[in-house]
Design brief:
single chain, about 180 residues, mainly alpha, Arc Repressor Mutant, subunit A, 2 domains, 7 helices, about 65% helix
């Protein structure tokens, strides 16, 4: 098994432990390693699963905003790539799951006011942690979105490490470096 295959399989196991199917995780891993769009046929062959399975899991990644479907001129097949902001989409999906859990926790005390104090305290604890963490993660995602928007409008040569100003070499240094080249 190559290191790529091992990585893809481990992504499948990680996804499975997170409530997704192993194929969805393997598909995500395969797309993560690709620089070009891939067709369902290619992905099914690579993963050793049916095209129908890959199609189902590709739709799941599309629904979550993790992957995108693209076309190629003159080719009727659909191709798939990761969304530009795929990791933030994964975080947003997780936040939605947490919010669903939180909503359930908030609804029960309202409909069952006779809950024991210890249970109401647990629910209050969940409410406090949710509010505290969610506000910070949402703030971080908003900040990331602004940062990412700035990066997309900044010329590539200015992204990442700032360019250092070039200082002109003295005549002696220039002559010495010319001699080394000859």
């Amino acid at each position: 098994m190559t290191s790529r295959d091992s990585f893809i399989e481990r992504m499948g196991l990680a996804a499975e432990s997170d409530g997704l199917s192993r194929i969805a995780g393997r598909l995500f891993g395969a797309l993560l390693l690709e620089s070009e769009p891939r067709s369902l046929d290619d992905l099914a062959d690579q993963l050793g699963v049916s095209k129908a399975s890959v199609s189902t899991e590709a739709r799941r990644l599309l629904d979550r905003g993790v992957a995108e479907r693209v076309g190629k001129p003159g080719d009727r097949r659909d191709y798939y790539v990761l969304s530009p902001d795929f990791f933030a989409q994964i975080v947003r999906f997780r936040l939605n799951r947490w919010s669903t859990l939180h909503q359930l926790v908030r609804e029960l005390p309202a409909s069952a006011p006779d809950l024991p104090r210890v249970v109401r305290d647990r629910f209050a604890y969940i409410d406090d942690v949710h509010a505290f963490v969610l506000s910070r993660v949402e703030s971080a995602l908003a900040e990331w979105h602004e940062h990412n928007a700035l990066r997309s409008t900044t010329p590539v040569h200015q992204q990442g490490r700032p360019r250092q100003k070039r200082t002109p070499k003295s005549g002696v240094k220039r002559a010495m470096s010319k001699e080394r080249i000859d």
